[in-house]
Design brief:
Blueprint: E1 3-8, E2 13-18, E3 21-27, H1 28-34, H2 44-69, H3 74-83, H4 88-100, H5 106-117, H6 123-132, H7 137-147, H8 150-163, H9 173-185, H10 190-198
Antiparallel strand pairs: 1-2, 2-3
Helix pairs in contact: 2-4, 3-4, 5-7, 8-10
């Protein structure tokens, strides 16, 4: 592999191109220590040192730091590492490393997501948001099976009605149609909406 270009991407970091393609980012001190210069060839030993001893180690530490900062999905963690310009193989190894210690669990992530939003959002809304975060359909289904109930959906509808100060007893036909339509568009099932509106629960 030949270093065809060295491009600054910060005060002390440089993007290294191998055979014309962007390969990885190194710090100035690392480049100097390894003797990396434009036009020079890199031996397999040097490449192994870069990918294993430098980039993989750095990616593991970065992944751990990102997970300490906040819970993330596997897809979310991969994206953050890619933004750091870690090579794909290094990113996958770092993700596998943290997953092996139980720090990544998309089902648990989805469960926490559902539990924190089930009183204000419909199942359909939460499913859509979880998919946008990269959680698989299988993991989403498992999470809902573990922690979501019909009563939870009904309570979400009640909370929205309270927030809108909607009184089923005094609402006319037009107002009922409007609130049914609003809740349906948010993804709540018709039978749940009807059950809550026809059987209101008095606040304690």
């Amino acid at each position: 592999m030949t270093v065809t270009r060295v491009e600054p991407c910060g005060k002390t970091r440089y993007r290294i191109y191998l055979n014309g393609e962007s390969a990885f980012v190194l710090y100035k001190g690392e480049m100097k220590k390894l003797g990396i210069r434009e036009g020079e060839s890199l031996s397999s030993d040097i490449l192994e040192t870069i990918y294993t001893d430098i980039l993989y180690r750095r990616a593991r530490l970065r992944a751990m730091h990102l997970l300490e900062d906040m819970d993330r999905t596997e897809a979310g963690l991969r994206e953050k590492l890619r933004q750091g310009e870690y090579p794909e193989a290094v990113t996958e190894k770092a993700v596998a490393y943290v997953r092996s210690f139980g720090y990544l669990d998309d089902v648990k992530y989805a469960e926490n997501f559902i539990l924190s939003r089930r009183d204000s959002k419909s199942r359909r809304e939460m499913e859509a948001l979880l998919r946008k975060k990269g959680v698989s359909g299988t993991d989403i289904e498992q999470a809902f099976s573990n922690c979501y109930t019909e009563e939870g959906e009904a309570e979400a509808v009640r909370k929205i009605l309270r927030k809108k100060r909607f009184d089923p007893d005094s609402a006319d036909r037009a107002e009922l149609q409007k609130i049914y339509g609003y809740l349906a568009r948010k993804g709540f099932r018709y039978e749940i909406i009807r059950q809550v509106i026809q059987n209101p629960v008095e606040d304690a």
